[in-house]
Design goal:
flat; 6 helices; Serine Threonine Protein Phosphatase 5, Tetratricopeptide repeat; mainly alpha
Length: about 130
């Protein structure tokens, strides 16, 4: 039985950032998704959500708005579930931009409403 080398999410995270900064979005995307999964398994939900967000950014840069949307919505969902509401709002705003790029006005308006609601709730908590 061969021993599986334990992947380091922090190393994947750093490698992905480097790839992203050099415009290698496809490779960065893969590493962000791997890192997200490893962070999630380690119960590091903040980094898991941020890696999904970064995966969304990669897809967005590749003009793959459908896929980007999927990652931004997953990031937002996990963010809200774990109480990272401000981060969730950012993910929703990016998701809204994907819907704009896909020319889906109905969904754009739906997200605008949700973003306003969450922001209002956040302001009320101060």
């Amino acid at each position: 039985m061969s021993e599986k080398v334990k992947e380091d999410p922090v190393k994947l995270h750093k490698d992905a950032n480097t790839l992203y900064e050099t415009g290698k979005y496809e490779e960065a995307l893969e590493k962000f998704l791997q890192a997200s999964e490893l962070y999630r398994k380690a119960n590091n939900f903040f980094d898991a959500t941020s890696m999904l967000y970064k995966a969304g950014e990669c897809s967005y840069m590749l003009k793959d708005y459908e896929t980007a949307l999927e990652y931004f919505l997953k990031s937002a969902e996990l963010s809200f579930k774990k109480g990272f509401d401000r981060f969730g709002v950012s993910a929703l705003e990016y998701a809204r931009d994907c819907y704009k790029a896909l020319e889906n006005q109905e969904k754009v308006q739906e997200l605008e409403k949700k973003i306003k609601e969450v922001k209002k709730k956040l302001e009320a908590s101060f």
